[in-house]
Amino acid sequence: MKFGHFDDKNREYVIETPRTPYPWINYLGTQGFFSLISNTAGGYSFYKDARLRRITRYRYNNVPIDMGGRYFYINDNGTIWNPGWSPVKTELDSYECRHGMGYTIIKGKKNDLKAEVTFFVPQDYDGEVQQVVLTNEGSAPKTFKFWSFAEWCLWDAQDDCTNFQRNFSTGRVEIKDSTIYHKTEYRDRRNHFAFYYVNDKIDGYDTDRDSFIGLYNGFHNPQAVLDGKCTNSLADGWSPIASHYKEITLKAGESKTLVFILGYVEMPQDKKFEADGKTINKEKALAMMEKYNTPEKFAAGMAELRAYWDKLLGILNVNTPEDKVNRMVNIWNQYQCMVTFNLSRSASYFESGIGRGMGFRDSNQDILGFVHQIPDRARERLIDIASTQLEDGGCYHQYQPLTKKGNADIGGDFSDDPLWMILSVSSYIKETGDWSILDEKVPYDNDESKAKSMLDHLTVSFYHIVNNLGPHGLPLAMRADWNDCINLSCFSDTPGESFQTYTNPKFKKEGGYSKIAESVFVAALFTYVGPAFVGILNHLGKKKDAAKAQKEIDKMKKVMMASAWDGNWFMRAYDANGQKMGSKECQEGQIFIEPQGFAIMSDVGKEEGTAKKTLAAIDERLNTKHGLVLNNPAFSKYYIQYGEISTYPGGYKENAGIFTHNNAWIICAAAYAGEGDQAFKYYSEIAPAYTEETSDIHKTEPYVYGQMIGGKDAGSDVGQTGKNFGQGKNSWLTGTAAWNMVAISQYILGIQPDFDGLKVDPSIPASWDGFTATRLFRGARYNITIKNPSHVCKGVKSMIVDGQPVEGCVVPFVEGKKEVNVEITLG
Ligand code: GLC
Ligand code: GLC
Questions:
Q1: Are 747 and 667 in contact (CB under 8 A)?
Q2: Which helix (H) or strand (E) holds 155?
Q3: 439: burial class by Cβ within 10 Å (0-12, 13-18, 19+)?
Q4: pLDDT in tens, 799-812
């Protein structure tokens, strides 16, 4: 069942009912000011840091769901409603929500009164601008009452929802003309305030929540709206809000447009106040209001936003036989990659904005998805990340976006972290041809005196693996590898111990983690990423270093075949007792998804036909109609030697959930192995546009990936196996966005930047006649045509570049060319 439709021409998803199976959200903002907005206008705003500069309040885990947002209330002669249906939830005569690229439009109509509200955050602007167009579509004049509403958060979102003994007595506001200023703590230690403005005269206001809503009422029945007035309340402690009140009369057919601005302002210490030393100096705020205070200025801001997205989405454009692929690649997957670039894992409807900083592995992988769109910012991000690395190649697992420093509370010793950096830096070079990044002096542990070249960072990353091998010669698992929930050094039996940060004291004298537990996943990732490091060394003419590194890769592959090949797939690990994990010998968790894809793409055991066997096992044991589960069979009890993975009921999260992130690795691997049909099958099982038809089951947004989909074992814990199978969770902020972008564009469609040029080596469904694509790459536009007359999945039979035949499938890079025509025939 669908709840809306794609409008590809406008790059929008159009939601046709407010009763979506879960709030379906969008993000506004790309630089400093961000808003989350649901299809009923729920959500919140923050400036840069979702924890420390929360501007409006939101209640996670609330009943009913999605309470708190920017609401407009209408009281039309006793009929009370909101343009976005919620929170009053009066049945509307019509409703529509359009989530577009960085903006959302919500339209509601009731009793011939139409309200159309457009929300966006302009470029280079610290505020959310909202345009409300009210139209009387009836044949008689209409008089009604209108309120805006926003609830201020007292800045620190964590403190705001815990420290009530203080916070109920600190709230402060100021009102001038049609603007309500929120200035809690501005008098003392803060240099910032927020405001809510409307470009028209108002008939009153409220700034105290209880006066507006009533202590025992809710967002759905604010007392002021019920009474058809406002109280001109002045918040003094308790919960400050901002609500404008206006009485409006419209003739038949007449429209009225109001522009509201929710802004954030920082002031220099000596300019905070007017001469009286207490009134806010509004200079900067007024200039911000001036910038968008008319519908014309509003439209210009929207046009600028559109141009920004035209440019970003103009870099890669494909035209395949599948509309759903086109809309994922050309619009939504790229959009999601940019949102993950901006937000990392901080704020979504599943991430509260007060938890995690920037993950070392997460941020490196995210680069893969957006490096073609914003290479300069990718470069900057790479240097930020590398600056938190430690001299021995180890990494802080997270760093804080405000300080850009490694987070000591979480610490390091996650075995996979260093490898992702080799992958992201090499992807950056492949995209841009900018080898100079390797010479960049980058600190270790944020200490400038320890700065060395980026190449040095990659070298210590590579050797961090080589220098930390276990008894079989496989990489030590340490605290965890990519799977944060396989905690082989944890052995936790005490509630509250964090699986991510706790390691059992029994490993203390060994350096904090088991020197027995080994990760086959890290081994496979090493053999996949290693060749990029060797490629870099070769390019730099460091042949000896390259040969030395290559030897380590070859050795690792041998070790994997000797100690980690289980006959039909690769094992997952050796635990701290030296026992196999992810083997047919195990009772539960016999096969895991993670190592398989990278092992296949590294040709580990190629002579023995490992790829074919592994892909067959994956298809048989892990695949479902909703995607590939992470492991099988699911764990049905707590295994103290494995940790968090076995705490989830079967079918959820890392315990046999469909973890879409690593589905992409298998899609890549199947494509690599020439199984284009199999790759595409897995792609279409999880790609949001394909799940649209079953949105009632899938629940989360049909335009973006979520981290997880309930696996085939979901419900097994309560004897109802299959319950919640196919149900999405944790949408938006996930490495799935980047990896599926890689899977579809670089592996299936096969357009893959390489050190020496653009490689084009598709692995598509055999039924396709071909496809076309345009790709901006290092300053030139590549017009690519793929023909598939013999209906194969993979194999470049001939390549013609600008009329000339070229051997192989890499279009050699020629400096200065502006346009390149590539014609490929498969066969
Ligand atoms: C989450 C984390 C990521 C981890 C994955 C598997 O997505 O952000 O770092 O690799 O879960 O546990
Ligand atoms: C939990 C989650 C995992 C995530 C981790 C991040 O372990 O299950 O997905 O990566 O927390 O801290």
A1: yes
A2: strand 142-155
A3: exposed
A4: 999 999 999 999 99
Q: Return d(Cα 399, Cα 567) in angstroms, integer.
A: 40
DSSP H helical ranges for 388-473: 417-432, 454-466
Cα distance between residue 597 and residue 554, in whole Å: 18
Distance 573 CA to ligand 2 centre (A): 19
Distance CA 218, CA 702 (A): 31
CA distance 91 to 13: 22
d(CA 401, CA 388): 12
- Alpha-carbon span 122 to 70, nearest angstrom: 17
Helix, strand, coil proportions of the chain in percent (round to 5)? 30, 30, 40
Of 728, 723, 782, 705, which Cα lies nearest the Cα of 750?
A: 782
Ligand 2 centre and the CA of 485: distance in Å?
7
What letter represents residue 253's amino acid? G
Alpha carbons 821 and 461: distance in angstroms, whole number: 39
**Any atom of ligand 2 within 6 Å of the Cβ of 734:** no
* pLDDT score of 356: 74
pLDDT band of 357, cuts 50, 70, 90: confident
Quick check: helix, strand or coil at residue 121?
coil
76-79: which pairs have CB atoms within 8 A and are 24 or more residues apart?
Answer: 76/110, 76/111, 76/113, 76/142, 76/144, 76/145, 77/143, 77/144, 79/110, 79/111
Q: Nearest 5 degrees, angle CA 354-CA 357-CA 363?
A: 140
Report yes or no: 543 and 551 within 8 Å, Cβ to Cβ.
Answer: no
Lowest-pLDDT range of 238-247, 341-350, 661-670: 341-350
Report residue 295 as tokens: 């519908």
Q: Please, is 619 exposed, middle or buried when counting C-beta atoms within 10 Å of its C-beta (0-12, 13-18, 19+)?
A: middle
- Among 395, 482, 665, 731, residue to substitute to test ligand 1 (most atoms within 8 Å of Cβ): 482
228 burial level (CB within 10 Å; 0-12, 13-18, 19+) = middle
365, two tokens: 């992988």
Q: Which atom of ligand 1 is nearest to the CA of 345?
A: 8
Nearest atom, ligand 1, residue 485 CA: 12
Q: For the segment 398-408, what is each residue's pLDDT rounded down to a tens digit?
A: 988 778 888 88
Tell me whether residue 456 is one of the annotated catalytic residues.
Answer: no
User: How many angstroms is it from 310 CA to the middle of ligand 1?
Assistant: 31
Residue 406 has phi, psi (to 5 degrees) of -55, 145
Q: Which amino acid is at 85?
A: W
Ligand 2 test: best mutation among 348, 351, 484, most atoms within 8 Å of CB? 484
CA distance 666 to 21: 29
Short-list 196, 317, 320, 192, CA closest to 267: 192
Q: Kindly provide the b/e burial profile for residues 730-763, where b requires at least 16 CB atoms within 10 angstroms of the residue's own CB.
A: bbbbbbbbbbbbbbbbbbbbbbbbbbebbbbbbb
624 contact partners, CB below 8 Å, separation of at least 6: 658, 685, 711, 712, 725
Q: Which residues pair with 722 in a beta bridge?
A: none
Tally of residues, the chain: 827
Residue 81 in contact with residue 112, Cβ under 8 Å?
no
pTM: 0.97
